[in-house]
Amino acid sequence: MQLTIIGCHAATPRKNAQTTAQLLEIKGHLMLIDCGEGTQMQLRKLGVKFARIQHIFISHLHGDHFYGLIGLISTFRLLGREADLHIYGPKGIKEIITLQLKLAKSWTDYALYFHELDHTESVVVFDDEKIKVSTVPLDHRVYTNGYFFEEKVGSRKINSEAAKNHGVEVCDMENLKSGKDFINTAGELISNAQLTFDPEPPKSYAFCSDTAYKEDIVPIIANATMLYHESTFLKNHLDLAAKTKHSTAGQAAQIAAKAQVGGLILGHYSTRYGDLNAFVAEAQESFQNVYLAEDNKVFDI
Amino acid sequence: MQLTIIGCHAATPRKNAQTTAQLLEIKGHLMLIDCGEGTQMQLRKLGVKFARIQHIFISHLHGDHFYGLIGLISTFRLLGREADLHIYGPKGIKEIITLQLKLAKSWTDYALYFHELDHTESVVVFDDEKIKVSTVPLDHRVYTNGYFFEEKVGSRKINSEAAKNHGVEVCDMENLKSGKDFINTAGELISNAQLTFDPEPPKSYAFCSDTAYKEDIVPIIANATMLYHESTFLKNHLDLAAKTKHSTAGQAAQIAAKAQVGGLILGHYSTRYGDLNAFVAEAQESFQNVYLAEDNKVFDI
Prior knowledge:
- The structure is a homodimer of 301-residue chains.
- Chain A is α/β, with parallel strands linked by helices.
- Chain A has 2 domains: 2-154 and 200-300, Ribonuclease Z/Hydroxyacylglutathione hydrolase-like (Metallo-beta-lactamase, Chain A); 157-197, no CATH class.
- In chain A, 25% of the residues lie in helices and 27% in strands.
- In chain A, helix 10 (249-258) crosses helix 11.
- Chain A is globular.
C-alpha cells in the first residue's frame, strides 16, 4: 500500500502549499481522496495515469477539499477517457458537478456515477474481492466523512518446497490457496498447514479530515495500519480548534493512541505556523510513531 | 494601461501552461478577465493585492475560463476581504457560485454582486468617469462574450508656463482642465487653447475569446489600441476550428486588419502545437503588428 500526499495545507492553495488531496494505491486500485484546486496539475507532475483513477472520495464540500474536482472531471473528458468514474461525497455534490457540466454543454462521454452520502453512521461505500471502504463520520462545520480503506485477508501462500515433496500439481494450487487440505495419489490427507504459509496480514488506512476531536471514531478505525488525522492547530489554539471544529496535534495523537494504530500522519496545518516540528513534538506526548504530511511525500505503508 | 497574461492556453491546465486569465490595469482599476483553475495561485505569485480586484469579467462557462472563480471568491472571504466584488458573466454563473457557497455554509462577508448576461447585442456593463466596458457578443459552442475596455477622454493638460504668464491661480485650474476659457484680472479672455494641451488620446483593449471567425464584432472593437483574439488553431486545422467554433491565427489577423486595431495579441493555443512562431507567421499574412501571449507576460499598452 502506498500513500502519496498531493496536498496537505488548510484553507487556500498557495505557492508550495497545495490544499488537501491524497492518492492511495491499494491492491491494484488507485484511489483519490479529496481534490483541492490544482490537483489535476499535481497529478500530471507526478505522472499519474488518469485512467487508473476510477474512484474519488470527497470528505466534505469545503473548497480546499473539492474545488479541483470539476476541473479533473472535465479534463478526463477532454482527454477522451472511456473508463467509468465513481464519485463518493456528501449529498449536493452531484448537483454542483452536473450543473456545471450542463451550463458548459459538456456532458462526459464516460460513465460518471455519484454515490451521495448523508448517513450519520459508518457505512460501506465500496466492497470488492480485495478491499473494503467505509465512511468515518466526522464532526465539522458541514457534513463530513473520513474514509477507512481495508485490505481483505489474501489467499494462503504456497510452500513451494513442501508442495513439491508431497506431489502437489498446478491444478491443486487454487484449493490450497483457499485453505483446503490435499489428498495425494496414495490417498493420504496432507493438512493445508503443512503445505502453505499464512497470508500477509491485511493493511488498512484511515483518512480523517476535517474534524473536531471525536472519540466515536475510535472503534471504526481501530488498529489501522496508518491513520491520517488532521491537525490544523497546536494546543495553544485549542479555543480556535473548538470554534472552527478542527483538531490539535495533541488531539490527533490521542485518537491514534486510543485506536492503537500503527502510525499517525499529521496534516492540514493552518497557515499561521512556520515550524511544523512543533506538531510532531505535541503529538508525541501521547503517541510515538508520528509523521508529518508534506506535499508530494510518499508513504510506503 | 497594462495587461498581464496570467494564462493563455486552451483546454486543460498543465505544468507551465495555465488556462485563460488576464489582468488589465486601466485608469486605476484592476480588472480580472476570465479565471481558469489555479488563477489565485498565479495572482499570489505575481504579488497582486487581492483587494484591488473589484470586477471580474467571465467570457463563458467552459472550465478553462472560470473554474478558478469559486476558489478566488472563497479565498477572498478567508482573507477577510471587505471590498465589494462584481462578477460579470453568462446567466447561470450566479447559480453555480451560490450553490457552492450554500453547500459549504460559506457565505461571503463582503458584498458579492452578479451581473448576469444574456444579451445577443453589445451592451455596456460598466461605466464610470474614467472608463467604459462593453460586451462583444461572440460565436462559440456556449453563450460567450468578449469585453471591450475603453478609456474616456481625460481632462486637458495645463500648460504651466502659459498659465503662469497669464496669471492663472490654482483655483482656476479645474475650469481650464474641463476646457473652459480664462478671464484674467484685467478682464481679458484668454482662450483655453492658449493655456492647455490636448489630453492623451484614450486607449482601449478588446478581449475576444473564445469564438469562431465573426466579422460582426469589427464595428464594436474598431480602432482598439490592442486586441486579444483567440487563435486556437492554425489554418491547416480550419475544419477543426469551424467544428469547435474557434479561430485560426489567420482569422484573428483578418479581424484585426478589418477593425484597424493598433496591435494583435494571439493566444488560447491548442495543445497540439509545439512551435508558436507559426501563429505569428500565419497572422502576419494579413496584419503586421502581432504578439504572442505567454503566461506571466506583461504588455504595456
